[in-house]
């Protein structure tokens, strides 16, 4: 809880204790506690709480405007202005302002006088000076925020004088009083300002230019009352040569004051407007901003210049924009963008993007200014590379004319770069570099062209919905032409040939254009305007680009390809166009569109790599003709020429070859085409896919598919950027190099082998550098010998270094190949996902189980890299969600049934041999999926006979169903392909292994999933579970846990007949009873867990019997439980015994024995000779009194049972302090008399049950029953409690006409449990009617 500040009022209790408060204040506090709480809520940090409290306070005071509450509220709010918590002062100030705004009859002068009297700056102590200063400041701000200060002349003058006095305390308040004064004067009228101005503004220009606040007050007066200011100060030229340095200092001070706020000071924008108004903007920008602030090498001043540049964009004309965007400020901004690369460095680029976006959005009707600003920012370059990113979000605000002009400027700069028009710069590290190639114009042109082509593509990518189709086509044709074609002679039919290059287009630049073109092609294929990848004419964009390429190929005199076509390649191009025309006749078919897309894409790749794509294009055309000419077939046993592979296999190989290319567009097209041909898939075609996914075959050297890498292309794209970043971050690179050298040394030390050591020893011995025992007597080596030895060692270490580098290169090569292979496998998994999603009923899907499991096993073992993780996640998602959990599956197995049974057995065995449970779970789920497939298929020879049996059957009940599908009925077992005996044997072995093996990877959820999905196996597997209930500790716990979860499943119950189910319940009950004979004797944690499992299973068994209305003999069980009660009580205080006791008494409650209440004895009934009356009164500090100490349950439970008296009366001892609610709850439940049995076990023939049991089970009442004792105690003491509980169980008096005790006395020795009688499920009048009907029977 927060400590109260000295200035805050005291609470009512404190006021009463101190006695120093006035009587009316105490009366006020006593009058309304709610009113006082308002002021505490006003100071809380939550804004909603403060506002709500202020609103409630105003509503409260509106009802009592003349009462004492108003005076107290004013005093309390004024007191709050100077509290010690700085966060609470603005809250009280705002509340006071709203109070003064709501009650205009309150005089402001009186409020200001109270503030000054409360916080008198002349009399306040030094320790309280700072709170007093802030109290005066926030008091004036409250008057100003109320909106009444500018209307009250007297209060305004006093406030101005107070602010001037507060301005002297700069150490505490800094410039806040002057800022408040400027804010107040900006709201007053001109007449009032003329009157006040001489008092607040000095006539000295040196004072005016001494601080931002004084200058801002001067500019305010010049704007509102220029004539009065001229009389006071005279004619002032702020932009004179004498005043410019002063303005620079003032702006520097303003920049420092907003350093943390990161905003533009108002004084800077006011000076900019004044310069524009007086037509002195060039002088202001050149001398004040560029020559003044920018030369200070002070980053807050530089940021002020950047913000001033962004804020000035909407205010400047086109000529002024050209002046600003070609100066030093924009160049310095570019340097900042290039050098601010580290994560913790402040980056101004996002803030500048906001300024530019606001400007472009605000001048939609002026496309020339939009184009000028965008071109200017694109012209700020670092050695030819623009500092703005290729993907710039502000282009979305361009108007259509400005967008067309910007695209035209980009194309012109690409063809004929004008390096002189650029605002180019070099960083300090680049200037220090001695490499002359970094400063050549060819490098700058390459960097600029590369940026331009990607900027064009990003414009289409971000504005594909808003761009005009003609403009998009211009960009696409431009990229296509300069990617693959060269102009020989200009022609008017091809506009792209009219503009020659001022600098020749190098191969690196052309490769960059080609990469950008395929990125654009992906954008046009996936993001569309009219239809998927189509223009307004209805044709895909790729079709239009192919037509344009054909036009260029036909103009061979004017245009030629970069890689000339051979005659065969040109024939392949012409055949492709012919096939496209044939596909138009099948345009209604969905696969025709996919084939068209594939053909167009490979046709465009023919321009990039003719030799590789020529044969591929011919094979695709052949497959397309066969696919469209072939009729859909239902059987896959069609005879095929063995010399020629089916078209599906050829097309799958083509798709795999396309997936090997690092192109996202190719990946999408291959996925789309495979989705249309997967219905025609053959086993051989599927095997081609599995060969890639199978780790054993895909890692061979002779792979059929060569995985290509675009690292060279990526290196081309980023080489220049990396070199630039390397120059800017030279120090960080040197650190990395030193670390790399250390790692190389460590690796070199690790790579030293025995052979190198032997060679080194040989060289040293040959040079006699290693001496033997007589080395001391030998002379030292001469200079020539040392030189020869040095040369030998140098050559030896050079060879070793080469060997180490070769091994390192080989290792990197293998890692790179592995990474490429993993990427390829991830892309090939797309085809598997398409197959299991679109053709789940295809029998070939069953062939995917083991390959996918193989990938999962390998990835789980070595899932260290991100690629392995991605491969694992994607494979697991396909296997789990799309395959095992699919709603549809194969219904036409044919001759695969026997193989599937063997596969089920193999999968279950593999699951049991896995090193961990996650891997075993995938294998187990695969076996469950195959079980589902086998169960859902019918044997051909048994279908007709089964149908006749079903017609002849007299049982019209439908086949039971489960959540995962139909459960096998006895009539359908013969018609199913499932070999129940084989499957039962397989899972019985797995279950036995799970129960007996200590570190088994199998888990309980696996078998629960088996029982819920295929409950028909429970009849054969339950005996194994029942057998292990009484086994060793771990099997017993697992068996009990499985039975707990399984017995309550409706699917399992539907597989058993009523006699079988009752027999099973009896067997489980007998096993549990045998376990409970050692209840309470647990010495270890495992034995304790064993007892818990047995009791939990017993309670589940009771609930199941109650639900099924079964009758079981519980005499032996009750005797066992009562016999173990004493041993259970002895371990009552052991760790974890509370859960055991709860389960025990839950079972006893089901049997009719209520848990006894444990009441604490009164201290008066337990006299102690060691405690005197004085010791009872004087308790030791830190110790509990005797009445609060917990008594041992053993002593409390044993005594009443022996005496035959109740364990707790409930009324003899008054409730202890602090437990009234608990005692009231216990008092509502009737006490069970003698609920605790004696230490001796009852006789087997003596039934022990609570008196309420006969009322629950009326059919067990017989006339020849004799009275019996309850829990071994006499009947007379238990009669009142028994009657009380029986009356609560039967609210209808006299239903049976017999007392509860007589009903219990006639109970037989055989105790039966009939749970869930109809009377227990009915309530109210229904329950009474049933009881009356039973009472009326003879």
UniProtKB/TrEMBL annotation:
Keywords: Nucleus. Residues 734-752 have a biased composition (Acidic residues). Residues 703-721, 1156-1165 have a biased composition (Basic and acidic residues). Pfam families: DNA_pol_phi (PF04931). The keyword Nucleus applies. Residues 1174-1193, 1218-1227, 1325-1338 have a biased composition (Basic residues). It comes from the Eukaryota. Residues 1-22, 698-753, 944-966, 1155-1299, 1319-1338 are annotated as: Disordered. One of its GO terms (molecular function) is sequence-specific DNA binding. One of its GO terms (biological process) is intrinsic apoptotic signaling pathway by p53 class mediator. GO terms for cellular component: B-WICH complex; cytoplasm; NLS-dependent protein nuclear import complex; nucleolus. It is found in: Nucleus. Belongs to the MYBBP1A family. This is MYB binding protein 1a. The gene is MYBBP1A.
């Amino acid at each position: 809880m927060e400590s109260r500040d000295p200035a805050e009022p005291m609470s009512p209790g404190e006021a009463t204790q101190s006695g120093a408060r006035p009587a009316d204040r105490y009366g006020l506090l006593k009058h309304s506690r709610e009113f006082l709480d308002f002021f505490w809520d006003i100071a809380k940090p939550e804004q909603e709480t403060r506002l709500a409290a202020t609103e409630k306070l105003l509503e409260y005071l509106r009802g009592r405007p003349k009462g004492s509450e108003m005076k107290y509220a004013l005093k309390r709010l004024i007191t709050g202005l100077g509290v010690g918590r700085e966060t609470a002062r603005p809250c009280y100030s705002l509340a006071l302002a709203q109070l003064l705004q709501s009650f205009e009859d309150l005089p402001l002068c009186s409020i200001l006088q109270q503030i000054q009297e409360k916080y008198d700056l002349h009399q306040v102590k030094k320790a309280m000076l700072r709170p007093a200063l802030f109290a005066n400041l926030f008091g004036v701000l409250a008057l100003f925020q109320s909106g009444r200060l500018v209307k009250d002349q007297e209060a305004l003058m006093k406030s101005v004088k107070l602010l001037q006095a507060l301005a002297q305390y700069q150490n505490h308040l800094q410039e806040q009083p002057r800022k408040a004064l400027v804010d107040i004067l900006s709201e007053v009228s001109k007449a009032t300002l003329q009157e006040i101005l001489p008092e607040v503004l000095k006539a000295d220009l040196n004072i005016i230019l001494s601080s931002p606040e004084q200058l801002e007050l001067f500019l305010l007066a010049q704007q509102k009352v220029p004539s009065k200011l001229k009389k006071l100060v005279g004619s002032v030229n702020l932009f004179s040569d004498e005043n410019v340095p002063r303005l620079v200092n003032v702006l520097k001070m303003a920049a420092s004051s907003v350093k943390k706020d990161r905003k533009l000071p108002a004084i800077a924008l006011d000076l900019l407007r004044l310069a524009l108004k007086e037509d002195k903007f060039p002088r202001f920008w050149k001398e004040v901003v560029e020559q003044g602030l920018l030369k200070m090498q002070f980053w807050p001043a530089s940021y002020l210049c950047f913000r001033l540049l962004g804020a000035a964009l909407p205010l400047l004309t086109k000529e002024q924009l050209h002046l600003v965007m070609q100066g030093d400020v924009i160049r310095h901004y570019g340097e900042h963008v290039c050098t601010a690369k580290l994560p913790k460095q402040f980056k101004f680029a996002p803030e500048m993007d906001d300024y530019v976006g606001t400007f472009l959005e605000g001048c939609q009707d002026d496309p020339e200014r939009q184009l000028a600003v965008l071109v200017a920012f694109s012209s700020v370059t670092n050695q030819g590379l623009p500092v703005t990113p290729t993907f710039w979000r502000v282009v979305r605000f361009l108007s259509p004319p400005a967008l067309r002009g910007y695209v035209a400027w980009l194309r012109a700069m690409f063809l004929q770069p004008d390096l002189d028009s650029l605002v180019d710069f070099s960083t300090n590290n680049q200037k220090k570099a001695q490499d002359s190639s970094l400063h050549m114009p060819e490098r700058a042109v390459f960097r600029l062209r590369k940026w331009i082509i990607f900027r064009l593509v990003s414009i289409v990518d971000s504005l594909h919905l808003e761009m005009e189709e003609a403009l998009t086509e211009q960009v696409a044709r431009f990229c296509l032409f300069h990617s693959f074609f060269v102009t020989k002679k200009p022609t008017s039919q091809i506009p792209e040939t009219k503009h020659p290059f001022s600098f020749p287009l190098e191969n690196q630049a052309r490769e960059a254009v080609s990469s950008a073109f395929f990125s654009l092609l992906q954008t046009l294929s996936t993001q569309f305007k009219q239809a998927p990848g189509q223009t307004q004419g209805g044709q895909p964009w790729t079709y239009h680009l192919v037509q344009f390429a054909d036009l260029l190929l036909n103009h061979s005199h004017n245009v030629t390809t970069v890689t000339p076509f051979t005659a065969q390649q040109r024939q392949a191009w012409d055949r492709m166009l012919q096939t496209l025309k044939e596909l138009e006749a099948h345009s209604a078919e969905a696969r025709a569109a996919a084939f068209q897309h594939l053909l167009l894409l490979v046709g465009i790749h023919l321009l990039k790599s003719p030799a590789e794509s020529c044969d591929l294009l011919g094979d695709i055309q052949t497959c397309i003709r066969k696919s469209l000419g072939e009729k859909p077939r239902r059987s896959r046993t069609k005879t095929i020429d063995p010399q020629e592979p089916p078209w599906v296999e050829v097309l799958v190989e083509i798709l795999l070859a396309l997936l090997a290319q690092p192109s996202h567009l190719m990946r999408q097209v291959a996925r789309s085409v495979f989705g249309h041909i997967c219905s025609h898939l053959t086993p051989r075609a599927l095997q081609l896919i599995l060969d890639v996914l199978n780790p054993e075959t895909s890692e061979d050297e002779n792979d059929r598919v060569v995985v290509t890498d675009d690292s060279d292309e990526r290196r081309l794209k980023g080489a220049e950027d990396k070199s630039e970043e390397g120059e800017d971050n030279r120090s960080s690179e040197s650190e990395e190099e030193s670390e790399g050298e250390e790692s190389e040394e460590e690796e070199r030390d690790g790579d030293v082998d025995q052979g190198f050591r032997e060679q080194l020893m040989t060289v040293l011995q040959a040079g006699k550098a290693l001496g033997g025992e007589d080395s001391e007597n030998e002379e030292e080596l001469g200079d020539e010998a040392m030189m020869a030895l040095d040369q030998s060692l140098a050559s030896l270490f050079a060879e070793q270094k080469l060997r180490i580098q070769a091994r390192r290169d080989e290792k990197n090569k293998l890692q790179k190949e592995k990474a490429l292979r993993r990427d390829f496998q991830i892309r090939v998994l797309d085809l598997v996902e398409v197959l299991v999603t679109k053709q789940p009923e295809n029998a070939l899907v069953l062939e995917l189980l083991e390959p996918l499991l193989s990938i999962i096993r390998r990835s789980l073992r070595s899932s260290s890299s991100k690629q392995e993780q991605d491969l694992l996640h994607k494979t697991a998602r396909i296997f789990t969600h799309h395959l095992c959990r699919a709603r549809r599956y194969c219904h036409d197995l044919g001759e695969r049934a026997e193989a599937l049974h063997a596969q089920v057995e193999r999968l279950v065995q593999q699951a049991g041999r896995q090193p961990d449970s996650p891997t075993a779970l995938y294998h187990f789920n695969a076996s469950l999926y195959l079980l589902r497939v086998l169960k859902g298929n019918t044997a051909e020879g048994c279908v007709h006979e089964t149908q006749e049996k079903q017609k002849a059957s007299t049982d019209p009940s439908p086949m039971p169903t489960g959540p995962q599908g139909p459960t096998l009925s006895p009539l359908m077992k013969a018609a199913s392909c499932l070999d129940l005996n084989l499957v039962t044997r397989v899972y019985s072995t797995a279950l036995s292994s799970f129960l007996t093996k200590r570190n088994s990877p199998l888990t309980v959820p696996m078998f629960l999933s088996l029982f819920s999905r295929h409950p028909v196996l429970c009849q054969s597997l339950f005996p194994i579970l029942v057998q292990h209930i009484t086994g060793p500790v771990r099997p017993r716990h697992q068996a009990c846990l499985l039975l707990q979860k399984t017995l309550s499943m409706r699917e399992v119950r539907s597989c058993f007949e009523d006699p079988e189910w009752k027999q099973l319940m009896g067997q489980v009950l007998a096993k549990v009873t045998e376990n409970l004979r050692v209840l309470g004797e647990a010495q270890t944690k495992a034995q304790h867990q064993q007892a818990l499992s047995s009791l939990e299973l017993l309670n589940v068994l009771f609930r199941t019997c109650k639900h099924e209305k079964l009758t079981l003999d519980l005499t032996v069980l009750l005797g066992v439980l009562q016999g173990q009660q004493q041993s259970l009580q002895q371990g009552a205080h052991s760790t974890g015994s509370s859960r055991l006791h709860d389960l025990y008494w839950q079972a006893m409650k089901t049997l009719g024995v209520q848990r006894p209440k444990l009441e604490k004895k009164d201290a008066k009934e337990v006299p102690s000779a060691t405690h005197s009356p004085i010791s009872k009164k004087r308790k030791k500090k830190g110790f509990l009194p005797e009445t609060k100490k917990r008594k041992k349950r053993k002593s409390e439970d044993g005594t009443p049972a022996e005496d035959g008296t109740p364990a707790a009366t409930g009324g003899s001892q008054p409730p202890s302090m602090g437990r009234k609610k608990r005692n009231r709850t216990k008092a509502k439940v009737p006490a069970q008399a003698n609920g605790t049995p004696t230490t001796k076990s009852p006789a087997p023939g003596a039934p022990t049950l609570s008196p309420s049991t006969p009322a629950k089970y009326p059919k067990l009442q017989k006339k020849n029953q004799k009275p019996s004792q309850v829990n071994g105690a006499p009947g007379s003491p238990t009669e009142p409690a028994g009657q009380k509980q029986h009356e609560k169980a039967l609210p209808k008096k006299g239903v049976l006409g017999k007392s509860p005790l007589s009903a219990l006395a006639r109970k037989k020795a055989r105790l039966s449990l009939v749970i869930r009688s109809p009377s227990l499920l009915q309530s109210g009048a229904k329950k009474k009617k049933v009881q009356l009907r039973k009472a009326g029977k003879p």
